[in-house]
Amino acid sequence: MADLTWYGVRCVFRHRVLGVYEERVTLWTAGSLDEAIGRGEDEARAYCETLHDVEYVRFAEAFRMDGTPGEGAEVFSLMRESELPAGEYVMRFFATGDERVG
After folding, report:
1. At 79, is the pLDDT very low, low, confident or very high (cuts 50, 70, 90)?
2. What does the pLDDT read at residue 28?
3. Among 4, 38, 57, 90, whose CB has the most other CB atoms within 10 angstroms?
4. What is the CA radius of gyration of the chain?
């Protein structure tokens, strides 16, 4: 059996009635990136079964963590190449004005 490592798995959901998309990051121990994604996707399908009009859009990404989760641990990271200036980058990908926060 492979050594187990912690992974953060991000899955994306569509809430049809609310008209919003949701990104969730869950934590898993797994022997590989593929195994972690599989476990995250299994949980994503179970999550949808508990909610009305929510679908898993079949998009998952995983991040291999260093060490064990604890206070201040990095649970997910994504790097994206872009020539956009910082403010435009944030507005395009993170702060579009359509987010529901709080």
Report:
1. confident
2. 97
3. 38
4. 16
Going across the sheet that includes 54-64, the strands are 20-30, 5-15, 54-64
Phi, psi of 38, rounded to the nearest 5 degrees: -60, -45
User: What is the pLDDT, as a whole number, of residue 93?
Assistant: 87
Neighbours of 51 (CB within 10 A): 12
Domain boundaries, the chain: 5-67
Round the average pLDDT of the chain to a whole number and report it: 91
Q: Which helix (DSSP H) or strand (DSSP E) does residue 100 occupy?
A: none
Tell me if 57 sits within 8 A of 3, measured CB to CB.
no
Instruction: With residue 62 as reference, give the H or E element that holds it.
Output: strand 54-64
Dig out the tokens for 69 from the structure: 């989760």
Average pLDDT over residues 47-51: 95
DSSP 48-94: HHTSSSEEEEEEEEEEEPSS---TT-----------S-HHHHHHHHT
